[in-house]
Amino acid sequence: MTGTFDFNNDSHRRYNPLTDSWVLVSPHRTQRPWQGQQEKTSADGLPEYDPTCYLCPGNVRATGPVNPKYESTFVFVNDYAAVKVDQPPYEQSGADDDDLKSRLLQAQGTRGTCFVICFSPKHNVTLPLMSVAEIENVLDTWTALYEKMKTETTFRYLQIFENKGAVMGCSNPHPHCQAWCTENLPSEPAKEFTSLRSYKAQHGTCLLCDYAIVEQQDPIRIVIQNESFIALVPFWAVWPFETLILAKSHTASLVDFSPKQKTDLADLVQKLTIRYDNLFQTSFPYSMGLHQAPINPLQDESQLAHFHMHFYPPLLRGATVRKFLVGFEMLGEPQRDLTAEQAADRIRAVEEVHYLLK
C-alpha cells in the first residue's frame, strides 16, 4: 500500500504509559450507521428539594437516619458500604507454591469504610451548575476527609469518585460522590504507581510531569487550562470524550494544594463539566475519580504520586448513543472510533456558558 499514514483515518494502536496497556484506534469507523441501543436522556427541571430523596436535607434515609438540614456539603458513612471496618480476619491457610489450589485460588480479607459526600443541599444542581466557590467547598470536604482518614486510620487508600447519571448506574440524581477507604491499594492506582516507579527508575523524572510538558508543547489535545492545571483528552484515551485533569506542578495530593491551586482546580472542573453538558445539550454522564498519594503510603509512593483526575464519559454520538466496551474490547484490548485529537477539538468548540443558563 502506498501513500501517507493518516492518524485521522488509518487504524493504529496507542500506548498508555500510566497502565502499561494499549488501545486500538479505528477512526474510519465513525462513518458506520448506528442501529443499536439508544439511552434515555436525563430529565432537566428537577425540584430544588425532593421530599422522597434520601440525600436531601432533613429527609429520612433508607436505613432510618435523618439527614441534618445542611447548607453546604454533607458527609456520612454509606448506609450500604462495600467494605466494613469490623469483620473477622481471613488468612488463606495452607499457602504453598507447590500446591495448585493455593497458587491459583487466592483471596484476601479486606477492611475499610465508605462515605457519601453530598455536594449541595440543592437537589437540582450538578458540578457544572455550581459556582466555583461551591466547588471549592467540595474540594475542602474531600481534603478534610483525606486528612481525617490519614490521622485516624491505618487504611492505605482513599478513592474518591463520582458516578453521574443513570446510565452510569447512579441511583439518585442528588449531587453527590462517594469515597471508599480501604486497607489495600486498589488495582488501578497500583498499576499507575508501578508505571510511575518504572519510568522514574529508567528516566529519573516523573512520567506525568513529562507528559504535561509534552502536551503543552503541542496543545492539540488540551481542552482548557489555567495556571495550575490542564484538562486534556489523553493521547491513549479509551472512552470517546475521556479527559484527564493534570496538575502542572508535581503535587502529590489534595492536602498539598496551595489556595491558588484549589481555586484553579475548582474553576477547571466547572468549565470542563459545562463543556461536557454543552456538547450534546444534556446532563453529561460520566464516572470521575481522583488519583493521588495514598493516605498511608509505603516506600516511595509519596514522592511518585502526581495528582490527577480521570473523567470517563460513555456518550459516543449524541445524548442517547453510548459507547460499550464489548467484544474485542473485552477479549482483545480497548478500542475507540474517535481520535483523541478529534474529541478534544469537539469539546473545545462548545461554549463555556451552560446551555440551561443561556
What does this structure look like?
This protein is an alpha+beta fold and 358 residues long. The protein has a domain at 187-351: HIT family, subunit A (2-Layer Sandwich), CATH 3.30.428.10. 26% of the residues lie in helices and 19% in strands. It is built from eight helices and 14 strands. Strand 12 (315-318) and strand 13 form a beta hairpin. Helix 2 (132-152) crosses helix 5 (259-280). The N and C termini lie far apart (51 Å). UDP-alpha-D-glucose binds at residues 29-32, 62, 78-79, 163, 169-171, 178, 323-324, 328-329, 335. The active site is at residue 176. GO terms for molecular function: UDP-glucose:hexose-1-phosphate uridylyltransferase activity; zinc ion binding. Pathway: Carbohydrate metabolism; galactose metabolism.
Question: Would you spell out the secondary-structure blueprint of this structure?
Answer:
Blueprint: E1 12-16, E2 21-25, E3 74-77, H1 100-104, E4 112-118, H2 132-152, E5 157-164, E6 176-182, H3 187-203, H4 207-217, E7 222-225, E8 229-232, E9 243-247, H5 259-280, E10 286-291, H6 301-304, E11 308-312, E12 315-318, E13 321-322, H7 328-331, E14 335-336, H8 340-349
Parallel strand pairs: 2-14
Antiparallel strand pairs: 1-2, 3-4, 4-6, 5-6, 5-10, 7-8, 8-9, 9-11, 10-11, 12-13
Helix pairs in contact: 2-5
Briefly say what this structure is.
The chain is of the alpha+beta class and 358 residues long. The chain has a domain at 187-351: 2-Layer Sandwich (HIT family, subunit A).
| Known CATH architecture of one domain | 2-Layer Sandwich
CATH homology superfamily of one domain: HIT-like
**Biggest pleated-sheet summary:** 9 strands, antiparallel
What spatial order of strands do you see in the largest sheet? Answer: 3-4-6-5-10-11-9-8-7
Top-tier CATH class of one domain: Alpha Beta
Beta-strand level of the residues, as a percent range? 15-25%
CATH fold group of one domain: HIT family, subunit A
Query: What is the overall number of helices?
Result: 8
Radius of gyration: 21 Å
The helix/strand class is alpha+beta
Global geometry: globular
Low-confidence stretches: none
Whole-number average pLDDT?
A: 92
Helix content: 25-40%
Order of helices and strands: EEEHEHEEHHEEEHEHEEEHEH
Total DSSP E strands? 14
- In whole angstroms, the N-to-C terminal distance is 51 Å
Pfam families: GalP_UDP_tr_C, GalP_UDP_transf
EC number: 2.7.7.12
Enzyme class: transferase
Keywords: Carbohydrate metabolism, Galactose metabolism, Iron, Metal-binding, Nucleotidyltransferase, Transferase, Zinc
